[in-house]
Amino acid sequence: MLARYKYRGEERLLPWLAAMLQPAYAKLSEELLIGDGLFSIKKNAAPAFDLITSVPVSEQRLLERGFNQAERLAASLAVRIGLPARPLLTRQEERGKMSAKTRKERLETAIGLFTSAPETPEILSIIARRSPVQRRSLRLLLVDDIYTTGGTLDSCAFALQMAAPVPIDIYGLTWARA
């Protein structure tokens, strides 16, 4: 189903894909809130995350597909759960299709591949000031379509950490694992 959405442009599948992400999001949120002592059986007392963001695609992939599948998944999930979603990252360049690379090549390719968008520090500062829950750090949910080696999520997390004017914790959520 993800391949049909991502490679064949069957955008009508997005609601189903986002719905399939929701149980994994709920489980992760519950675990975090229990750890915080903020989970209530009746209803979550507070959101587990402050903001949702996504892994960017290259300009070339955006032109080929016409959309960023991870960004659309993140936005659709955000609407379903009532959290803000913002693009915070940019992809530096096209380094070839990850699907054609070995594990080692994927990990090497991901290093330094992402940087924060120019507005990221300001967005994170605003979210921190408006957060309904005072934690030691903001919690960001980073959405991607497929987890293969973790290199992409690691590279994105590093770029976000470097740009953050406030402490942040980053959690990854993917639709599939390869």
From TrEMBL:
Transmembrane residues, as ranges?
Answer: none
CDD domains for this protein: PRTases_typeI
Q: By its UniProt entry, which InterPro entries does this protein fall under?
A: ComF/GntX_DNA_util-trans, PRTase-like, PRTase_dom
Keywords for this protein: Glycosyltransferase, Transferase
Lineage, top-rank taxon, reads Bacteria
Gene3D superfamilies the record matches:
3.40.50.2020
GO function term, MF aspect, one: glycosyltransferase activity
Cross-referenced PANTHER family: DNA UTILIZATION PROTEIN YHGH
What's the family?
A: Belongs to the ComF/GntX family.
Its protein name is: Amidophosphoribosyltransferase
Which species?
A: Paenibacillus herberti
